[in-house]
């Protein structure tokens, strides 16, 4: 995300970055420098500055973008920004919830989709926010007031969580029935079963090159993360008194899969099923 952000930002604007991994920061600075050199940009024109801490980011940046997977990480990031002295001007303006969809593959390709929520109290605000988000992706939807971005993301990921299990079950059935899974995938992609977990994040190793399954289930989206979103969707549905017929079964399945394949991509559900089929 940040690499695409730097490449599309005005060259004179500095980009401040912060990550818990120093190795990741070093690699990012090196890669953005190479990108700038390849594009014929003058040395030092596309500035990337590594911040010492979150407070420094808040004090120096006009726009702060965070991409954090857990509530604890959000608290740990924002607490230092606001605990010392007066609140930085950046944090006195507005917060926009802007969850992202597209996974690691979409992030690298600059093809992420954003759904954001904020109250509109000034002309041009939505267009301005879209212009910022589209530096990292290709689509951005204003879903309503504050919190609506998160609600839209949870609705979308509820479908994804259920769909991923169904796809893994179907492909595992196909394998047990002796079907060629490359051909089955091609068929599904041309039929009404077509969906992202089949076409892009296919759970069978070797069927889709570059998918997590084809890289030993190296996560784009770890099992724990989709399980977290599923739990949040279930909690929100309960508060709204909205029934979810498949949620408990899916939750139980992901709890079991995460217990055996912690840290791996959520498409590893296929591996969980296939090993039980052969048992």
From TrEMBL:
The active site is at residue 153. It catalyses: 3-hydroxy-2-methylpropanoate + NAD(+) = 2-methyl-3-oxopropanoate + NADH + H(+). InterPro entries: 6-PGluconate_DH-like_C_sf, 6PGD_dom2, 6PGDH_NADP-bd, HIBADH-like_NADP-bd, HIBADH-related, NAD(P)-bd_dom_sf. Residues 147-272 form the 3-hydroxyisobutyrate dehydrogenase-like NAD-binding domain. Residues 93-144 form the 6-phosphogluconate dehydrogenase NADP-binding domain. Pfam families: NAD_binding_11, NAD_binding_2. Keywords: Branched-chain amino acid catabolism, NAD, Oxidoreductase. One of its GO terms (biological process) is L-valine catabolic process. It comes from the Eukaryota. Pathway: Amino-acid degradation; L-valine degradation. GO terms for cellular component: mitochondrion. Belongs to the HIBADH-related family. 3-hydroxyisobutyrate dehydrogenase subfamily. This is 3-hydroxyisobutyrate dehydrogenase.
């Amino acid at each position: 995300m940040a690499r695409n952000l730097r490449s599309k930002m005005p060259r004179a604007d500095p980009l401040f970055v912060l990550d818990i991994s120093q190795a990741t920061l070093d690699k990012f600075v090196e890669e953005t420098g190479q990108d700038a050199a390849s594009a014929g940009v003058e040395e030092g024109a596309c500035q990337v500055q590594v911040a010492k801490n979150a407070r420094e980011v808040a004090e120096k940046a006009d726009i702060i973008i965070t991409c954090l997977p857990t509530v604890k990480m959000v608290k740990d990031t924002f607490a230092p920004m606001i605990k010392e002295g007066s609140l930085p001007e950046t944090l006195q303006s507005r917060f926009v919830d802007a969850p992202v969809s597209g996974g690691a593959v979409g992030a690298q390709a600059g093809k992420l989709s954003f759904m954001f929520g904020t109250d509109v109290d000034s002309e041009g605000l939505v267009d301005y926010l879209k212009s910022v988000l589209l530096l990292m992706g290709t689509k951005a939807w204003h879903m309503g007031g504050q919190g609506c971005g998160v609600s839209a993301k949870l609705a979308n990921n509820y479908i994804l969580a259920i769909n991923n299990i169904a796809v893994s079950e179907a492909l595992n059935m196909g394998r047990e029935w002796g079907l060629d899974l490359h051909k089955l995938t091609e068929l599904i992609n041309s039929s009404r079963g077509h969906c992202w977990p089949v076409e892009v994040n296919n759970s069978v190793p070797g069927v889709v090159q570059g998918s997590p399954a084809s890289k030993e289930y190296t996560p784009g989206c770890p099992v724990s993360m989709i399980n977290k979103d599923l739990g949040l969707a279930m909690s929100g549905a309960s508060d709204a008194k909205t029934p979810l017929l498949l949620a408990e079964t899916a939750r139980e399945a992901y709890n079991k899969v995460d217990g055996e394949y912690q840290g791996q991509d959520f498409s590893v559900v296929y591996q969980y099923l296939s090993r039980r089929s052969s048992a």
